[in-house]
Amino acid sequence: DAGITQSPRHKVTETGTPVTLRCHQTENHRYMYWYRQDPGHGLRLIHYSYGVKDTDKGEVSDGYSVSRSKTEDFLLTLESATSSQTSVYFCATDTGDSNQPQHFGDGTRLSIL
Amino acid sequence: GQNIDQPTEMTATEGAIVQINCTYQTSGFNGLFWYQQHAGEAPTFLSYNVLDGLEEKGRFSSFLSRSKGYSYLLLKELQMKDSASYLCAVRQSGGSYIPTFGRGTSLIVHP
Q1: What integer pLDDT is reported at residue B105 of this predicted model?
Q2: Residue B99: which region, alpha, beta or left (left: phi > 0; alpha: psi -120 to 50)?
Q3: Under an 8 A CB cutoff, do A42 and B43 touch?
Q4: Which phi-psi region, left, alpha or beta, contains residue A76 (left: φ > 0; alpha: ψ -120 to 50)?
Q5: Which residues in chain A land under pLDDT 50?
Q6: Residue A85 phi/psi, 5° resolution?
Q7: Over 80: is that where the pLDDT of B95 sits?
Q8: What is the DSSP letter of A83?
Q9: Does B5 have pLDDT greater than 80?
Q10: Chain B, nearest residue to A41 by Cα
Q11: Distance CA B67, CA B83 (A)
């Protein structure tokens, strides 16, 4: 396994507060991804990173920002959380090779009241 | 862009065979992945296809037809533990290989 740790695993917070989710990997994978998973929508890409300080937007990036200051850490920040951002968030990593699968963390369940 | 379609839900009987289909439309193709996701857990990798044909891995097989934009996952000798969501993901060719996921198929296996 790619050794991916997400923290926190669960969080409840209020609308308008900032929230940061952390993803830590121990496999030295080049690519890291943040997805959200909602009923009826499957996994949707928020942002991804292809190296330290190299990030790009996914299909649902509005309201989210990311940072990658070290190979092993990828942070997802909700600057001002809204109820529509209540979801399960998954971090994933891979080597960047097209024939290699992604490895997923255990997810963070985020509830915004 | 990409469009990936899977059935939302399927049911099957323990011991039977089930086929989960995935169709895709993409401007370039560079591989298709199947993942299994049990409720409340992370997706885990099942299979990879990049060339036409069947890839067999124990009770699970995956088939690809690039000309038809079509894949299926075949599960044999179904067990109760196979009740899960099955996700199809496609990597595009050219530039980044960022995969796009279908919405997943929820498989319910009953006795």
Answers
A1: 97
A2: beta
A3: no
A4: beta
A5: none
A6: -95, 5
A7: no
A8: G
A9: yes
A10: B103
A11: 31
Query: SS3 for A85?
Result: helix
Nearest to B76 by CA among B12, B27, B26: B12
Contacts of B33 in chain A (CB under 8 A): 101-102
To the nearest whole number, what is the mean pLDDT of chain B?
94
Residues B18, B98: contact at Cβ < 8 Å?
Answer: no
Residue A74, beta-bridge partner list: A23
Residue type, B36: Q
Does A45 sit within 8 Å of B33, measured CB to CB?
no
Residue in A90, A102, A105 closest to B99 by CB: A102
Indicate yes or no: CB of A42 within 8 angstroms of CB of B101.
yes
- pLDDT of B93 above 80: no
A93 touches chain B (CB under 8 A): no
Question: Per-residue confidence at B111, pLDDT binned at 50, 70, 90?
Answer: very high
What are residue B99's phi and psi, to 5 degrees? -80, 150
**Residue A96 sits at the chain B interface (C-beta within 8 Å):** yes
For residue A40, the chain B residues in CB contact (below 8 A) are 103
Say if A39 is an interface residue toward chain B (CB within 8 Å). Answer: no
Chain B residues touching A35 at Cβ < 8 A: 101
